Amino acid sequence: MAHPHLPTTEAAVTAIRAIAAEHGLDIAVADDIGADQTSRRTSAGAFTTVDPDGSLPHEAFVELSGVPAVSVRIFPEDDAKITVDHVEFHDVPRDSVPAFLRSVYGGLAYTKGRFFPPGQWLIVPLPGDETYKELITDIALTPWLARSARSS
Fold first, then answer.
1. Apex CA 138: angle with CA 136 and CA 140, to 5°?
2. Which DSSP string do the residues of 69-114 spell out, in sequence order?
3. Backbone phi, psi, residue 149, to 5°
4. Which long-range CB contacts under 8 A does 138-141 form with residues at least 24 apart?
5. What are phi and psi of 96, to 5 degrees?
6. Over the stretch 26-46, which tens digit does the pLDDT of each residue have?
């Protein structure tokens, strides 16, 4: 399923603010603007704030209050890293971030464990056939992760 296009980092932050308002969550946003400030621009020269094409890269870090603990780092390269209760989902397309958060806060995300290979995974289904699955590396599950467990 195609998600609404979010052409900029600010558009993604605006969408996250709307989801936070829907669920009564507080939101904190930190913006890094300029090639010398964003985390993936290690090759930017000294005192260089724009990319070679003249654009000004914008990165944002968003923290949402409540349970589960969620943070989103939106990168200028059209992707994001979403952390849900210490479980990191890397390379989530920026356009998928609102659907991802709606799944988490809407009760669709769940954990699933296996005996072989051993481990617990956090699974976040999105509308359509898109699903994100990450291994939970902590030995003890947080109360929210334990509450959302499903049997194999």
1. 110
2. -EEEEE-TTSEEEEEETTEEEEEEEGGGHHHHHHHHHTT--EEEEE
3. -75, 145
4. 138/86, 141/111
5. -90, -10
6. 999 988 765 555 555 444 455
Q: Which tokens hold the place of 36?
A: 């010398």
Tokens 């958060």 sit on residue:
101
Alpha-carbon torsion (83, 89, 93, 95), positive or negative: negative
pTM metric for this prediction: 0.85
Nearest to 121 by CA among 82, 152, 79, 90: 152
Instruction: Name the residue among 138, 113, 109 with its Cα closest to residue 123.
Output: 109
Above 70 in pLDDT, residue 123? yes
